[in-house]
Amino acid sequence: MRILLVEDEPDLSRQIVQALEHNGYSVDLAGDGEEARYLGETEPYDAVILDLGLPKIDGLEVLSGWRQAGLEVPVVILTARSAWNQKVAGFDAGADQYVTKPFRIEELLARLRAGIRRAAGHTEAVLECGELRLDTRQVSVSLNGEPVPLTPYEYKVLSYLLHHPGEVVSRTELIEHIYDRDSDRDSNTVEVFIRRLRRKLGVDLIRTQRGRGYAVVDPSAGL
Ligand code: CA
């Protein structure tokens, strides 16, 4: 899952980026409203964390611009504006979640998870497929109740596929959602991650649709 963090305060953004990466997300950072607007319109994010008091363009204006353009990405506002009428303005501009500073990182992460899973049509923080469980709170995976250690990229690939069960996800789409903007993107590495995941989780879980991509399928469903 790939997140856009919009925050102009360097110390704070560093802390949030660190927490996000620790929780299995890839992160792009925008330090002003103009860059945020551009990135939001051009990159396929799974969620946005948006400060409101920003240089160049105010966060509220960025958000309403995205919504007018039809962008449906889940947005968590993170701001010092804590009055009730400011919150109302935030939701009316198209926010899904609203967190006021000062805040606990745990709350921000929980609201982010909630935004992402609602957008993907899930209700639970634990994603399941057959005997496989991926816990988005713990950033952990288990199979038949046994923990399965994954590398960060293996986790990212599996998490994206499990957020879209039964859907064929192309290699390009996977690459766009597991790497941040600054990463070297080599599409061959996706195949390597898939191969390693199959070795750890069994060959039946991730199906290859030749020429189209990959799909997570419940092995017990017999498809
Ligand atoms: Ca700010």
Task: Walk me through the topology.
Layout: E1 2-6, H1 10-22, E2 26-30, H2 33-42, E3 47-50, H3 59-68, E4 75-79, H4 84-93, E5 97-100, H5 105-119, E6 126-129, E7 132-135, E8 140-143, E9 146-147, H6 152-163, H7 171-178, H8 187-201, E10 206-209, E11 213-216
Parallel strand pairs: 1-2, 1-3, 3-4, 4-5
Antiparallel strand pairs: 6-7, 7-8, 8-9, 10-11
Helix pairs in contact: 2-3, 6-8
Bound molecules: calcium ion.
**Fraction in helix:** 40-55%
CATH superfamily of the largest domain: Response regulator
- Individual helix count: 8
Proportion of beta-strand residues: 15-25%
Low-confidence stretches: none
- Provide the spatial order of strands within the biggest beta sheet: 2-1-3-4-5
CATH topology of the largest domain: Rossmann fold
User: Taking Cα atoms only, what radius of gyration do you get, to the nearest Å?
Assistant: 18 Å
User: How many strands, what sense, and barrel or not for the largest sheet?
Assistant: 5 strands, parallel
CATH class of the largest domain reads: Alpha Beta
Q: Tell me, rounded to a whole number, the average pLDDT.
A: 95
- Ligand types: calcium ion
Please name the CATH architecture of the largest domain.
3-Layer(aba) Sandwich
Structural class: alpha/beta
What is the global morphology? Answer: elongated
Run of helices and strands: EHEHEHEHEHEEEEHHHEE
Number of self-contained structural domains? 2
Total number of β-strand segments? 11
